[in-house]
Automatic annotation (TrEMBL):
Record keyword Membrane present: yes
Species, as recorded: Parabacteroides faecis
SUPFAM superfamilies, alphabetized: Outer membrane efflux proteins (OEP)
Pfam families in UniProt: OEP
Name of protein: Outer membrane protein TolC
Subcellular location: Cell outer membrane
Lineage per the UniProt record: Bacteria, Pseudomonadati, Bacteroidota, Bacteroidia, Bacteroidales
């Protein structure tokens, strides 16, 4: 009969690499393409703020024109007696103009404030993305714990199934058991070997996925820090986590800044009702003289105050103001929605984590009971006091209990970080 051999993971030509949780988060955030895009948006928002601030500075323009002057015709009497005065053939004009805004109804100030708020939102979006990425990486990291435990359990089952098959073959030669028991034992051994091989392959696949996300060599076989499963943490009351979420949760902070943006837009709309005042200074060097058309340069400079008021804003801005006010109400409504979600999510995560901790304690007892049950049934079978089916069932129960315990431990860790995420502490 052909039997498979469960080879160690090291035989897959992959180098083992111990990966701690801190390193997982550090590499994950450093190499995340999504986070890189968020940081680019931060840089763009910062540039927008700097651009908005430049609107306080004076506008400076320079210009130069030159051109050919065509022959002009002067009529001395109506359209009669035309004459062609002697004029220069070329004209030149050089000018410098400086305009300093003094008052634009607050538009400059509130545009700068808007850019500053958008910059804060971009930063918070990066923080929110970072927390989501950490949680996704942690899920894959927890999968490695379960897969390594599966592999260890299946490898041990292969050894026990091999010993059991040897015992059954010995008993068969003595005429104590039948060929049916031998066939079922061979089948169980084959299944255990296949399960062990699948666990090895799953470990390799998950490791490669994390290697890519963390920017590591894809051939590295990642090994999680097992002490994480046994690290105890102290939990606070539910209301404390809710208060933390109200202060730290990125999406709620983003909603608050969006409300401030909407309120800022109201002030921008109000600025349209106000006049604009600027100081203008200019200097012009030109030839020929504009009055006598003599072929000489003349230089002129002037300083002026420019005051303007857009009368059409009295009727054009009415609906824009109403729209801006409705946006404020909409943003505040969004804040209230997020607060509701926070209470729901924090409560759910808080309960789930306590549930996971209780499950770990319950399954610790189940594993001890399953071990004892398997030992008793195995001894009874070897003494012909039970059948092979009972022994295989006891082995399956023990296997399931051990895997459930590892899954419960990983879920306890993951649910704790979900709680941290829901209150903005991840």
């Amino acid at each position: 009969m052909l039997l498979f051999i469960c080879k160690p993971v090291a035989t897959y030509s992959q180098q083992a690499y111990s990966l701690s949780l801190d390193e997982l988060f550090r590499l994950g955030t450093e190499n995340s393409l999504r986070l890189q895009a968020s940081r680019m948006e931060e840089v763009i928002a910062d540039d927008k703020e700097k651009t908005a601030k430049t609107s306080r500075l004076p506008g400076i323009s320079i210009g130069a024109t030159t051109g050919y002057i065509g022959q002009s015709t002067v009529f001395r009497k109506g359209l009669a007696q035309p004459v062609h005065p002697d004029l220069p053939d070329w004209s030149h004009n050089y000018n410098v103009e400086v305009t300093q805004p003094v008052y634009h109804g607050g538009k400059i100030h509130y545009n700068i404030k808007r850019a500053s708020l958008e910059k804060e939102i971009a930063t918070l979006n990066s923080t929110n993305s970072e927390a989501e990425i950490k949680l996704l990486l942690l899920r894959r990291y927890m999968d490695l714990f379960s897969l390594y435990k599966q592999r260890d359990v299946f490898a041990r089952n292969v050894e026990e199934s091999t010993r059991r098959l040897d015992d059954i073959r010995r008993l068969k030669k003595e005429g104590v058991v039948t060929r049916n028991d031998e066939l079922r034992s061979e089948l169980q051994l084959t299944n255990d070997q296949l399960a062990c091989r699948e666990a090895d392959d799953d470990i390799s696949i998950v490791s490669q996925q994390l290697d890519v996300l963390l920017g590591l060599d894809e051939s590295l076989l990642l090994q999680p820090d097992t002490t994480l499963l046994y690290t105890a943490v102290s939990l606070e009351d539910y209301e404390i986590y809710v208060l933390q979420a109200y202060s730290n949760y990125p999406e709620l902070q983003i909603a608050r800044y969006n409300t401030k943006l909407a309120e800022n837009d109201i002030r921008l709309s109000q600025a349209d009702y106000l006049p604009s005042l600027s100081i203008r200074a200019a200097n012009t060097l030109s030839r020929p003289l504009s009055t006598t058309m003599e072929d000489m340069f003349s230089n002129n400079w002037n300083i002026a105050l420019s005051l303007s008021y857009n009368l059409s804003s009295l009727y054009q801005n009415k609906h824009k103001m109403h729209e801006a006010k409705q946006y404020v109400h909409l943003r505040k409504n969004r804040e209230d929605q997020i607060r509701q979600d926070i209470r729901i999510n924090v409560r759910s995560a808080w309960i789930r984590h306590h549930e996971a901790l209780d499950r770990v304690q319950a399954l610790l007892l189940s594993v001890r009971q399953a071990e004892e049950n398997y030992r008793i049934v195995r001894n009874r079978y070897l003494n012909q006091l039970s059948i092979l089916t009972d022994l295989l069932d006891a082995s399956s129960v023990r296997l399931e209990a051990e895997l459930q315990l590892t899954n419960a431990r990983t879920e306890a860790v993951y649910s704790y970080y979900e709680l941290m995420r829901s209150c903005g502490n991840l």
